[in-house]
Amino acid sequence: MSEFAGPALTKILAEKITAEKRELEKRLAQLNQPDQLGGGESGAAEAGTDQPPRRKYPKVVPKYFNPLQPTETWSGRGKQPRWLVAALQSGHTLEEFKIPENGESSERNAGGREHS
Questions:
Q1: In what helix (H) or strand (E) does residue 64 lie, and over which residues does it extend?
Q2: Tens of pLDDT, residue by residue, the chain (116 residues)
Q3: Whether this model's pTM surpasses 0.70
Q4: Which residues does 12 contact at the CB level (< 8 Å), separation at least 6?
Q5: Is 26 left (phi over 0), alpha (psi -120 to 50) or beta?
Q6: I want to staple 34 with a disulfide (CB 3.0 to 4.6 A). Which of 14, 20, 39, 102 is the partner?
Q7: Closest CA to 73 of 60, 57, 56
C-alpha cells in the first residue's frame, strides 16, 4: 500500500502547492496595483508603520559650488560634501564657494545686510 501512496501523495501535494502559489500571486498583484498608480504612501501604511506619510518639502536651492567642478553644488544643509571639506581643510573659507544670488556681487553679500 505504501508504494501507491507515494506517487499519489506527491501528485496531490504538487497540485495544492501550485494552487496556493497561484493564490499568493493573485494577492501580490492586488497589493502591487496601488503602488503603480502613484501611492508610495499606501505601501508604507500597509507595512504596519503607524506614521503619517512624509510631508513634501520644497526643492532647496544650492548655495555653494565647487569651482573645480561647477556642477557639484551644496545647499548648505546636511553633511558637507567631500570637495568642500577638503577645501576647508586646505585653508579656504566657506564664503569663497558661495553662489551669488541673482547677479549680486560678492561685495554686497559680504555687507551683512539681510533681505526681508
A1: strand 64-65
A2: 555 568 889 999 999 999 999 999 998 888 887 655 555 444 444 555 688 888 888 888 999 999 999 899 999 999 999 999 999 999 999 999 998 887 555 444 444 444 44
A3: no
A4: none
A5: alpha
A6: 39
A7: 60
